[in-house]
């Protein structure tokens, strides 16, 4: 152990303890790297889940929800069920969405959904809108049908354009 506690005070490590720690890490570099990468992935996943929860609980205009649309409409395509939805209007007890027209066969990250500025293509959204109550949205989130949500700070999501500047 590098730090020791004696009589309630932290004492710094000795030079020999630091040297042994550095030598051990040098000999076991691959394992240390694996642990650091796993911790990084876990923190990234935790952060993404916190952002999704925050966006779902406090939705705003222009938020993007990534959903299993088959859970909303069982008449939709079961194979290409994972689609983006953009919040167009926040009402007192409901949200109005533009529903994505480009479905995926597996859950993708928000970045992969909008990659190559796909949201700017004319057929990216369906013409009709969808209105869901806040209770329905909460139930979809709890059932993991809403698997990601992001709030763009501007017209981009992770470097990809998702809306026109005039739509902010």
Quick summary of this structure?
The chain is of the alpha+beta class. The protein has helices at residues 15-27, 29-57, 110-114, 134-142, and strands at residues 4-6, 9-11, 64-68, 82-90, 94-100, 125-133, 146-150, 156-157, 160-161.
Q: How many β-strand stretches? A: 9
Strand order of the largest sheet: 6-5-4-3-7
Quickly count the helices: 4
Number of domains: 2
General form: elongated
In the predicted model, the low-confidence regions spanning at least 5 consecutive residues are: none
- Determine the mean pLDDT: 87
What brief labels describe this structure?
168 residues; alpha+beta; two-stranded antiparallel sheet; 4 helices; 9 strands; 27% strand
Describe the protein's topology:
Blueprint: E1 4-6, E2 9-11, H1 15-27, H2 29-57, E3 64-68, E4 82-90, E5 94-100, H3 110-114, E6 125-133, H4 134-142, E7 146-150, E8 156-157, E9 160-161
Antiparallel strand pairs: 1-2, 3-4, 3-7, 4-5, 5-6, 8-9
Q: What does the model show?
A:
The chain is 33% helix and 27% strand. With 168 residues, it is of the alpha+beta class. It has two domains: 13-51; 59-167, no CATH class. Strand 1 and strand 2 (9-11) form a beta hairpin. The model has no long low-confidence stretch (mean pLDDT 87).
